[in-house]
Amino acid sequence: MDLDPRLHAYRPDLADVRLKGKVESARLVEGTPRRVVASNAPLKRTPRADASLESEILRGELFTAFEDTAEGWAWGQLETDGYVGFVPIDALGATAPEPTHRIVALRTFVYPGPDMKLPAEGVLSFACRVALDDEAETRGTRYRRIAGGEGWIVSATVEPADAPPANDFVAVAERFLNTAYLWGGRTSLGLDCSSLVQLSLAAAGIAAPRDTDLQEKALGIIVEGGTSAPLHRGDMVFWPGHWAGHVGVMIDGEYLLHANGHHMATVIEPLAEVITRIAAKTGQPTSVKRLA
Questions:
Q1: For 38-84, how does the pLDDT look when each residue is reduced to its tens digit (9 = 90+)?
Q2: 209 is in which domain, residue-wise?
Q3: Does 189 lie in the same domain as 155?
Q4: Residues with Cβ < 8 Å from 6, sequence gap 6 or more?
Q5: How many CB atoms sit inside 10 A of residue 218's CB?
Q6: What is the 3-state secondary structure (H, E, C) of the chain?
Q7: 5 assigned to some structural domain
Q8: The total number of structural domains that make up the chain
C-alpha cells in the first residue's frame, strides 16, 4: 500500500506491528510508549545531528518508540499528530506521571525554587504539559512545583490540562506575532507556518496534522471562490507544495497572519501582497478552508 511515511512507522527493516498486512518489512514490533521529558527536542527523518529539522516534540507529549539506536536516537511516532521520525533518546522518559497542567504563556521559566529572583534553570514553551504538585507564594507571586522536585514555575503561566479550550484560535495565533520563523519549529522560540496553525488550533481543542498539505486535506470545508470570495476571520489560505506548501490564517477579510521565511517571522500583512509575492515563486493559492 502507498502509505505516507510521515504518518506510518515503516521501513524495509522495521515497522509498527499495527501495519501488519499493509507493509513489507523484515521485522514487525510493538512500540514502547514514552513521555517527552525535555522542554523540546528535534524530530528528524534521519538520525544525524546535522539532518534537517522535520518537526519538534514538546514536553509532556507521548512518543511510541520502535527502535533505539546505539548512537542515541529513538525511532518512533509522536502521538499528538502521528509524525514519524528520530528523536534523541535522552529527551524521552517514563510515561508517569501524567501531566496535570499545560503551559499557556508563550514561555515560562523554570526556577530551582519558588522565587523569580533565583537563576532560571530552564524554559518551557507554549503547549508543553507538565505534572505539578506543591504550591508556594513568594512576595505575592504564586508558584507550582514540577512533580519530582525538578523546579518551580509561575502559576499564572499554566492552566489545568482539562481546562476549557480557547474560544478563538486566531487570537491564540496572534499571540505569536513577531515570533522567529524556524523551519520545523513548534515552539514560541521559533515555528513554521503549519505549526502556528497546529498549535493555535490545539489550544482551541481542534487536532490538526503537522504539515501544510495534510492540513489542507483534513481541516474545514472549501470556501467556494477561494481568495476571490468574501473571507472571514479564521479562514485558512493554502498555497501549493508537497510537504512544503504554505498556510496562513485570516484575521479579518483582508489581512493574513502567517509564519514565513520571507520575513523570517510571524507577521500580519495584506493577503493581496502575499498572493503577489508567492505567485512569483510557487503559484496561486490552492484553496481556502473554513472551519465548520
A1: 999 999 999 999 999 999 999 999 999 999 999 999 999 999 999 99
A2: 169-290
A3: no
A4: 82, 83, 84, 210, 211, 214, 243
A5: 11
A6: CCCCCCCCCECCCCEEHHHECCECCCCEECCEEEEECCCEEEEECCCCCCCCEEEEEECCCEEEEEEECCCCEEEEEECCCCCEEEEEHHHEECCCCCCCEEECCCEEEEECCCCCCCCCCEEEECCCEECEEEEEEECCEEEEEECCCCCEEEHHHEEECCCCCCCCHHHHHHCCCCCEECCCCEECCEECHHHHHHHHHHHCCCCCCCCHHHHHHHCCEECCCHHHCCCCCCCEEEECCCCCCEEEEECCCCEEEEEECCCCEEEEEEHHHHHHHHHCCCCCCCEEEECC
A7: no
A8: 3
Q: What is the pTM of this model?
A: 0.96
209 and 240 belong to one structural domain? yes
CATH number, position 137: 2.30.30.40
Are 212 and 286 within one domain? yes
Q: What cell numbers appear for 81 in the block?
A: 499528530
The average confidence (pLDDT) of the chain is 97
